[in-house]
Amino acid sequence: MIVSSPDRRRGFIAVALVMTLAVVTILGGSLFRAVVLRRADLRSAERRLQAEWLAQSGMGRAMARLAKEPDYAGEIWELAAAEFGGRGDGAVVIKVEAVTGKPSLRLIRVRADYPKAEARRARESIEQTIEFSSARKGEDPK
Questions:
Q1: Residue ranges of the domains in the chain?
Q2: What is the pTM of this model?
């Protein structure tokens, strides 16, 4: 059987069309994968940045509480997402300890988790030693 020229041309066009469709599908899949990976990277960066902000806020909270309450030892500060515009709840653990041999110093340790209950949460920890006076304002430091 002899194949005529128009049939041969149709066959070639069909093969070229299938090849083009395969290339477009592969390129589309690669682009989709890149978008998904980039989105995951952005979410991860968002969680890390939010944890860092929560840790800084926890440090400020600890200093303010310590200024008002000399015996403040820390707390677990839980924040609902609606309180700070996040996608999930946050948790900040604050610990305040006296520095051995230096009664005028306090070591503040803060650990923030965001979101607090998610497996892929971000965690930021900071610590700072501050000068502390146990005498309250207006009191006689006898």
A1: 5-131
A2: 0.71
